[in-house]
């Protein structure tokens, strides 16, 4: 059947990527980037709730100073598995593999990613890695902390380091292949007229992310190989007793694991750029600065890893250089925050749910980023190393930043992904609950850390004065948990009962909104030709535009 | 010998219609039979696949980079022990293997040229020669591993490196612990390299099967090209491994 007859046929639901084929096989063997994105969505949501379950157990244990819910050994496993699952199986694949997979081809006007079968392979690698991780957790888990520092991991602990390492190794190749696909797609698959300076900032952010995935991930892969070899064959690569260097392990580990933070936050920044421009009805302020700040973050991100090692015995001169470079990363990050704020200035701001998440991101990321500067300062870092201050800081970046952006993006593009509108009032409520729950959970941890409460202890009964702040934090985590459950419920609900979405419910700029909701399998009925700049909201909202006001005021999602 | 007419890749049903639509729409691409549905032109497909391989090789550079970093540190720390351990491995065999791999790079280049100029027989011969040279390399490597095993130079419980003098310092003995680190790095680095060689042999076996069926034409030979890129990369890694592992302070 040709495209033309489909368009003219009087059918109720247009043919799209969801209803073109049915059956389990059509999903498990699909090469459609949109279907693979949904496979990823289901998988990472599964791991998100596993990691969240561990987090709630950790918070419950810390409700009282004594270790009365779980034994300290179990507690060690809980925070280790929480970290490993959340970092490697939720945060790193979250935005790139779900929203990036779905949107990169749509935004640049391509039919698919450059290598669709490699895209499917990357999902299978993720699933294999995830299954290994699940098996590892069910048969004993790991207790080293997600950083599996040597020589504890290679010579002392009797938990399942090698299996967890191999799970991360396999999942890492999934991440590499996703990044490789994006780099090639963005270079080679852009529609006619889609020049680099017309790319949405979401694409720039994913390009920067992909470079980190390509160049950083293999380093942790070889580090895992060395750890596994040392552990199984009793080599002396990292074990000082055998002549090895444990600081080398930390260098290799953080050479990936610090840039990995940018794998989490950069795509989120891309989402925020899209949302803020759309809901302020304005061209983004300083497009090229925002675009190149993503690249700058990716480049500088590779040069700051040793700020995790200020107390590990590195030379004071090295520490000074890494401290200064860590300050330098703050510059492109601040450029972004200032440009988003300037975009909103005198904009026509709409308070829809995605924008509420973007507001949340702005505030929380700013706090997380500024406390990062505390940690880049040598003196303060020595004071707060391995305290809850660090825990609070990176949760403000990873949860307050990355996950807020992910939630905002899920709401923003849900009408495109599912073809349905989500219930707006519930979405606003959940944005509010997440914001309150998040701050209640993690702000007390800044105070706790500054007062000296160390991380990774199940028992703090020798300092009972810390209990009140821990009770706040545990209460907040419950609120946060409800805030994350709500969207899952109403997203699922909307797939069946939600109002059908128009092609462009937000009246947003961007190629992904110019195709149908949900898009057809090959994304566009006709190959798009781009003749406009990104974020041309002044043109879209101009009274001379024939579509002016056609959708935005009438068809925003409404509560029922 | 007349090259057989190229046969099309079997495309999934849903893709075939679109691929055909592309063929009929794009009059400038008369031979679009190998074009996958989501590319507009063969040139775009070739560029994308090439860039993909280069990006993958960048990943590989970083993968080996971690090993080279570890090597650098321990070589600096334990230089006399590394020199002694390095002297115990057979530089003649290493040099032979270097020559073998450089020759295989030549045969790969000739294979790519043969594919581009529709010389099917030459292509097949060059692919087979490349694989033979690869096997020779692995055979020599296996012999070296066997020697090390018999000399108890494999790290582990039976490792022994006692009373081995440091080159240039006959009164000084190498520290067995530090020499063991050399051998650990030696086996991991050459082992990871050998795994890459074996993967390369697999790729070339597939290329050989495709060449046998006459799939490659002057218009469509990207697999040979990117397979060749991979092979060259693995060669270059060896070009660095050979002096780093075999030639430490040989003149002393």
Major sheet description of chain A: none
Number of helices of chain A: 18
Radius of gyration of chain A: 23 Å
Gap between N and C termini of chain B, in Å?
57 Å
Structural class of chain A: mainly alpha
Largest binding interface between chains: A-B, 48 and 42 residues
Major beta sheet summary of chain B: 2 strands, antiparallel
Low-confidence stretches of chain B: 1-31
Instruction: Walk across the major sheet of chain B and give the strand order.
Output: 1-2
Tell me the number of helical segments of chain B per DSSP (H or I, 4 or more residues long).
7
CATH topology of chain B: Four Helix Bundle (Hemerythrin (Met), subunit A)
Portion in beta strands of chain B: under 5%
Q: Please, how many domains of chain A?
A: 1
CATH topology-level fold name of chain A: Cytochrome C Oxidase, Chain A
Average pLDDT taken over every residue of chain B: 88
The CATH class of chain A? Mainly Alpha
The tally of strands of chain A reads 0
Structural class of chain B: mainly alpha
Structure write-up:
The complex is a heterodimer of chains A (560) and B (252). Chain A is mainly α. Chain A contains 18 helices and no strands. Chain A has helices spanning 3-8, 24-28, 33-61, 72-108, 116-138, 152-156, 161-188, 201-233, 246-280, 287-301, 316-344, 353-376, 378-384, 388-418, 424-451, 467-497, 537-540, 552-555. The model of chain A is unreliable at 1-11 and 549-560 (pLDDT under 50). Chain B is mostly helical and 252 residues long. Chain B is 70% helix and 3% strand. A two-stranded antiparallel ribbon of chain B has the order 1-2. In chain B, β1 (165-166) and β2 form a beta hairpin. At the A-B interface, α7, α8 and α9 of A face α2 and α6 of B.
């Amino acid at each position: 059947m040709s495209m033309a007859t489909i368009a003219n046929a009087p059918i109720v639901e247009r043919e799209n990527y969801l209803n073109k084929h049915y059956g389990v096989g059509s999903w498990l063997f699909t090469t459609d980037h949109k279907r693979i994105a949904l496979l990823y969505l289901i998988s990472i949501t599964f791991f998100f709730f596993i990691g969240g379950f561990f987090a709630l157990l950790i918070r419950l244990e810390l409700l009282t100073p004594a270790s009365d819910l779980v034994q300290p050994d179990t507690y060690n496993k809980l925070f280790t598995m929480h970290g490993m699952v959340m970092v490697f199986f939720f945060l790193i694949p979250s935005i790139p593999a779900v929203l990036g997979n779905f949107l990169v081809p749509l935004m640049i006007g391509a039919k698919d990613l450059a290598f669709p079968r490699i895209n499917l392979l990357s999902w299978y690698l993720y699933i294999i890695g995830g299954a290994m991780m699940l098996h590892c957790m069910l048969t004993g888990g790991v207790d080293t902390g997600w950083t599996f520092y040597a020589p504890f991991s290679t010579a002392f602990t009797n938990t399942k380091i090698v299996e967890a390492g191999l799970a991360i190794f396999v999942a890492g190749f999934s991440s590499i292949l996703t990044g490789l696909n994006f780099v090639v797609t963005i270079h080679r698959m852009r529609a006619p007229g889609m020049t680099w300076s017309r790319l949405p900032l979401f694409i720039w952010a994913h390009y920067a992310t992909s470079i980190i995935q390509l160049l950083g991930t293999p380093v942790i892969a070889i580090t895992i190989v060395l750890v596994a070899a040392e552990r199984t064959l009793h080599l002396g690569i990292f074990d000082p007793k055998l002549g090895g260097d444990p600081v080398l392990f930390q260098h290799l580990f953080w050479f990936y694991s610090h840039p990995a933070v940018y794998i989490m936050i950069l795509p989120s920044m891309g989402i925020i750029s899209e949302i803020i421009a759309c809901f302020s009805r304005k061209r983004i302020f300083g497009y090229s600065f925002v675009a190149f700040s993503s690249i700058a973050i990716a480049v500088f991100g590779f040069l700051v890893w040793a700020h995790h090692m200020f107390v590990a015995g590195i030379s004071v001169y090295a520490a000074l250089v890494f401290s200064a470079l860590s300050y330098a990363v703050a510059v492109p990050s601040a450029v972004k925050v200032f440009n988003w704020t300037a975009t909103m200035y005198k904009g026509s701001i709409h308070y829809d749910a995605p924008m509420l998440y973007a507001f949340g991101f702005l505030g929380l990321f700013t706090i997380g980023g500024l406390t990062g500067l505390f940690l880049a300062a040598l003196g303060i870092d020595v004071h707060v190393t391995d305290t809850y201050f660090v825990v609070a800081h990176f949760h403000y970046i990873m949860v307050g930043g990355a996950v807020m952006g992910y939630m905002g993006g899920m709401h923003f593009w849900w009408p495109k992904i599912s073809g349905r509108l989500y219930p707006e009032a519930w979405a606003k409520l959940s944005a509010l609950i997440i914001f309150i729950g998040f701050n209640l959970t993690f702000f007390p941890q800044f105070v706790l850390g500054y007062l000296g409460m160390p991380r990774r202890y199940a028992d703090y009964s020798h300092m009972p004065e810390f209990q009140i702040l821990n009770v706040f934090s545990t209460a907040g985590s419950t609120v946060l948990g409800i805030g994350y459950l709500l969207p899952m419920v109403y997203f699922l609900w909307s797939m069946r009962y939600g109002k059908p979405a128009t092609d462009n419910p937000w009246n947003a700029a961007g190629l992904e909104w110019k195709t149908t909701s949900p898009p057809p399998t090959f994304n566009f009925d006709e190959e798009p030709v781009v003749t406009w700049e990104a974020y041309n909201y002044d043109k879209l909202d101009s009274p001379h535009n024939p579509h002016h006001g056609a959708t935005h005021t009438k068809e925003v999602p409404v509560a029922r | 010998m007349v090259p057989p007419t190229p046969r099309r890749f079997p495309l999934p049903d849903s893709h075939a219609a679109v691929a055909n639509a592309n063929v009929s729409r794009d009059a400038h691409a008369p031979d679009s039979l190998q074009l996958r549905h989501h590319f507009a032109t063969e040139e775009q497909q070739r560029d994308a696949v090439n860039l993909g391989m280069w990006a993958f090789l960048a990943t590989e550079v970083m993968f080996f980079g971690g090993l080279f970093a570890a090597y650098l540190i321990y070589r600096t720390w334990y230089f006399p022990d590394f020199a002694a351990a390095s002297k115990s491995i057979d530089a003649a065999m290493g040099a032979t293997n270097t020559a073998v791999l450089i020759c295989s790079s030549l045969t790969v280049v000739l294979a790519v040229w043969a594919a581009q100029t529709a010389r099917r027989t030459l292509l097949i011969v060059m692919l087979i020669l490349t694989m033979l040279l690869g096997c020779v390399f692995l055979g020599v490597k296996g012999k070296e591993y066997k020697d090390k095993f018999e000399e108890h130079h494999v790290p582990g419980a039976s490792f022994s490196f006692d009373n081995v003098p440091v080159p240039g310092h006959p009164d000084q003995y190498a520290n067995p612990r530090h020499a063991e680190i050399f051998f650990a790095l030696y086996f991991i680095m050459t082992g990871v390299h050998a795994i890459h060689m074996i993967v390369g042999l697999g790729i070339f076996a597939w290329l050989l099967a495709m060449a046998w069926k006459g799939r490659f034409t002057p218009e469509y030979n990207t697999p040979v090209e990117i397979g060749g890129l991979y092979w060259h990369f693995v060669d270059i890694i060896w070009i660095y491994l050979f002096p780093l592992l075999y030639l430490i302070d040989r003149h002393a």
